[in-house]
Amino acid sequence: MTSRSDTARERFSDYYALPTAPWDIGRPQHAFVAAGDRIGGRILDCGCGSGDLAIWLAARGHAVTGVDFLAAPLAAARDKARRAGVEVTFLEMDALAVGEIPARFDAVTDSGLFHSFDDAARARYVAALRRLLEPGARVFILSMSPAEPGEQGPRRVSEEEIRAAFADGFTVESIEPARFEVVPGIAGAEFSPGGAHALFTTLRRA
Ligand SMILES: C[S@@+](CC[C@H](N)C(=O)[O-])C[C@H]1O[C@@H](n2cnc3c(N)ncnc32)[C@H](O)[C@@H]1O
């Protein structure tokens, strides 16, 4: 039987087999750069991919751990970190299991992971974050919004869905319109000029 994870792994592996995965723009998403002064301390980057956000945060002096369930982007991430001369801990693991990590974190960043989950995985992910984080820790999520037309790419997640998903154990501090930048010209990943319409959410563990 094929599990949800196997399917998701295959889907993401297929994207990483392309010359460039659509989201792999070679820099952190602008929404995180704009919020950079609010993201600090011990940071867990969930679904870190090839590491640009984790490396950027580490270069700003933060203690960063990146997790992804695929070895290929993690190998690229470790190589980039080495070349940038910054230390990042990269772990190959399922983000649905981050509640098991014994370390403590002040912030979680999620650039394009949350919107990849179906309803059941979404609930498990939020439960894992609830277990992982202590009161006061923050979660920053960039996810595609229903304002992005068409059906290509990840599922669109509305503000109401975000509020409902995090109703137990989190306070929503802000949900702002943003863009999810993508590599141009990839068939099947064509979004609005300037990037797919997205939402940038800031949550606080209650
Ligand atoms: C859209 S990509 C974004 C990558 C990176 N955050 C960025 O902004 O470039 C989503 C990433 O999450 C990873 N991923 C998806 N589901 C996961 C899971 N359940 N556990 C860990 N990583 C996962 C994928 O392998 C992929 O690298």
Written account of the structure:
- With 206 residues, the chain is an alpha/beta fold.
- It has one domain: 3-Layer(aba) Sandwich (Rossmann fold), CATH 3.40.50.150.
- The protein has 6 helices and 7 strands; from the N terminus they run ααβαβαββαβαββ.
- It has helices at 4-16, 30-34, 52-59, 71-84, 119-132, 159-165; strands spanning 42-46, 63-68, 89-92, 107-111, 138-144, 170-180, 196-205.
- Strands 3-2-1-4-5-7-6 form a 7-stranded mixed beta sheet, sandwiched between helices.
CATH topology, which one?
A: Rossmann fold
Q: What is the helical fraction, as a range of percent?
A: 25-40%
Number of domains: 1
Q: What is the multimeric organization of the chains shown?
A: single chain
Number of strands: 7
Distance between the termini: 38 Å
Going by helix content, strand content and strand pairing, the class is alpha/beta
The largest β sheet comes out as: 7 strands, mixed
